[in-house]
């Protein structure tokens, strides 16, 4: 626990620099000024790639020994991110799956080896799947059954970047309401080496910040080095907390946090 307390202190100091005086870091390429260290292996950046776009980015080194991914447990469904029991211990937490009124999740969801029951629209829900050793991939053709090797998994729709190809406006026209209109967004992706996990939250539905269309977002992420990515639940569900603090501004029509099906968390491993 000693290592956890040290990292938590470092993370809080980093956030103080990030958020103090309302001055967030400018955009920059990976490794350049503009990325702020939250914990060893976890960086944060805010970017404004074009007028009206407000993005929050997390980049996780999947080989960092002190960090691990976690998907909230089925018992946590139907709560806001900050109310979930596992939220307090998370370095970062973001919303994940689309869901129905019973908070059943779209596609495969696996939480530390536990496969969620009653998955929706599995065949059309590409997903992030990770083994216990944190070897992760984006699965574009989901199987009919969740493989035993999946330790954590979460699904969405549609894909944004596939084998290095970003979606184009013609792709968005196949799902115009979801894809070709400006909405708040949550996205998860990997670089070509599958070493770094990217989490992106786009603000929207507030004055001057309408949200983003998928194709331009995909093309921008591909230019940053994202090789594969999938769209998660967005709109009023999109939310990001780092060390317990909400970083993404809420939509004007939905100022309160929304109850969601599940969440993707980044947590510190206890020191040996």
Automatic annotation (TrEMBL):
Q: Which domain of life is it from?
A: Bacteria
User: Where is the Phosphodiester glycosidase domain positioned along the sequence?
Assistant: 90-266
For this chain, one GO molecular function annotation is: hydrolase activity, acting on glycosyl bonds
**PROSITE patterns, sorted:** PROKAR_LIPOPROTEIN
Q: Which InterPro entries does its entry note? A: NAGPA
What Pfam families has UniProt attached to this entry?
A: NAGPA
Q: Which UniProt keywords apply?
A: Glycosidase, Hydrolase, Signal
Span of the secretion signal? 1-23
What parts of the sequence cross the membrane? Answer: none
Protein's recorded name: Phosphodiester glycosidase family protein
